[in-house]
Amino acid sequence: METMATQPSQDAAEAWQPWHDERALRCINCQRTFSLRAILYHCPDCGDLLDVVYPRPQFDPEAVRKRWWRRRASKKHIDQSGVWRFRELLPFYDDEHQLVTYPEGNTPLLDAARSARYAGVRHLRFKHLGFNPTGSFKDYGMVAGVTQARILGMRAVACASTGNTSASMAAYAARAGLSAIVLVPEGGVSFAKLSQSLDYGALTLQIRGDFDAAQTLLQEIAPDLGIYILNSINPFRLEGQKSVMLELLEQCDWKAPDRIVVPGGNLGNSSSYGKALRELDDLGMLSKRPRITIVQAGGAAPLYDAFTQGHPDRLVRVHARTLATAIKIGAPVSWKKARRAVNWSDGWVTSVGEQDIADAKAIIGSDGIGCEPASATTLAAIRRLAREGTDKRVDPDEDIVAILTGNILKDADYTLRYHSRELYEEFTTESTVVNKGKKLESNYANPPVVVDATAEALTAAIRSRLA
């Protein structure tokens, strides 16, 4: 299956305009604009993705940087948020009382000497987004997406997920008083991630199919059910994730690193980073353009294939296979936005194998920094590009920041099996009770529901919950 795109070019990336004369949704292809409050995920004319755009902000860069920093000492919840304290660059709301917060963000930038030596580079730091409330980077975007859902007056939100998105959406929906509906692949999500969406009260539907099938079905049934989709096709999700770059630059004293390395799954993260950096560059707040380098697992690398096999204008869907379940996606919806970010920043896309991911994860752990397997693709890729010289070489003297997307406890079984020498490229675990004492009543149980991968089965299950 092929997804066609417009012809890419560096000239097109350079012509990328971040602003508009009013707040709106704008198609990344035909540039048509729509109301900021329209419930849209694709352009009705050409079918492409949408950006949230605003009038160019009028502020003094130095003054606003000081304001952002002062807010960290405030007792106001939205000032303590690592998203909303940068709200001058996210003005899609009408009133501060509309803003949802946990609070989220303000995640650390960590030195990692052992990891740097392993990769063969001299200047490597990890921006660890796993320090968020639900343990992954998704909280940055979900707080904005759920805020928009509340502004629109939606009663229910939904997502297809490999685990992290569902955990984050379930938590933020609960905080905002919205019903949450989660679609996950049966047997394709770690117990740790699955347990989060169950505990946060979401209707968790285990689809007899993969992530891509779940996402396609969700887009089919959502309009009829009146539910708001919060996958990365939702442009407001990516608005919240922009704040990662603002935090990072603030932590770097506003001196941009040479390269930012990020795992690539559905590609919303790299897309949002490119949008943030493009806006900051236009505002004169970016000292240089960091090269955005996207890393995919070898068994789930459609964007890498597009870049290296001579067809950057189209994405060929793959049957995703990797133990790094957070990026186990064969048809990433945000690939055009990600490609735009890579082209604009003169970055690159690469891939790494399962053994490389597993070893890199252990090395990151030896620095006292835990992460989920998908996060470890970053270190594996830096080592590959610096030491092996494959694809586009990384200079050992570059100042590099690698993004760690999730907490180590997201995939604890993977970690245990690696260190027990029992990790296989394909394995399935089952949770069983070996010794039974007195049974406790699950008075508030919220069990997952296994359904067929059909629109009819999903619709029936969701309607029963929303009735």
Distance between termini?
Answer: 37 Å
What best-fitting shape do the alpha-carbon axes yield? Answer: globular
Helix percent band? 25-40%
Level-1 CATH class name of the domain at 88-132 and 241-416: Alpha Beta
Describe the main β-sheet briefly.
Answer: 6 strands, mixed
Q: Helical element count?
A: 17
Which structural class matches the secondary elements? Answer: alpha/beta
Radius of gyration: 21 Å
Contiguous runs where pLDDT drops below 50 for at least 5 residues: 1-10
CATH architecture of the domain at 88-132 and 241-416: 3-Layer(aba) Sandwich
Strand order of the largest sheet: 5-6-15-11-12-14
In the CATH hierarchy, the third-tier topology of the domain at 88-132 and 241-416 is known as Rossmann fold
Describe the fold and architecture:
This protein has a domain at 88-132 and 241-416: Rossmann fold, CATH 3.40.50. Strand 7 (156-160), helix 6 and strand 8 form a beta-alpha-beta unit. The two termini are 37 Å apart. Strands 5-6-15-11-12-14 form a six-stranded mixed β-sheet, with helices on both faces. A five-stranded parallel β-sheet has the order 10-7-8-9-16, sandwiched between helices. The protein has a three-stranded antiparallel β-sheet with strand order 3-2-4. The longest helix has 16 residues, at 373-388. It contains 17 helices and 16 strands. The protein is an alpha/beta fold. The model is unreliable at 1-10 (pLDDT under 50). It is 38% helix and 15% strand.
Compile the SSE list and pairings.
Elements: E1 2-4, H1 10-14, E2 24-27, E3 33-34, E4 50-53, H2 61-70, H3 77-80, E5 109-111, H4 113-119, E6 123-128, H5 138-152, E7 156-160, H6 164-176, E8 179-185, H7 191-199, E9 203-207, H8 211-225, E10 228-229, H9 235-241, H10 243-251, E11 259-263, H11 268-282, E12 291-297, H12 302-308, E13 314-316, H13 335-345, E14 348-352, H14 354-366, H15 373-388, E15 399-404, H16 412-419, E16 449-451, H17 455-466
Parallel strand pairs: 6-15, 7-8, 7-10, 8-9, 9-16, 11-12, 11-15, 12-14
Antiparallel strand pairs: 1-13, 2-3, 2-4, 5-6
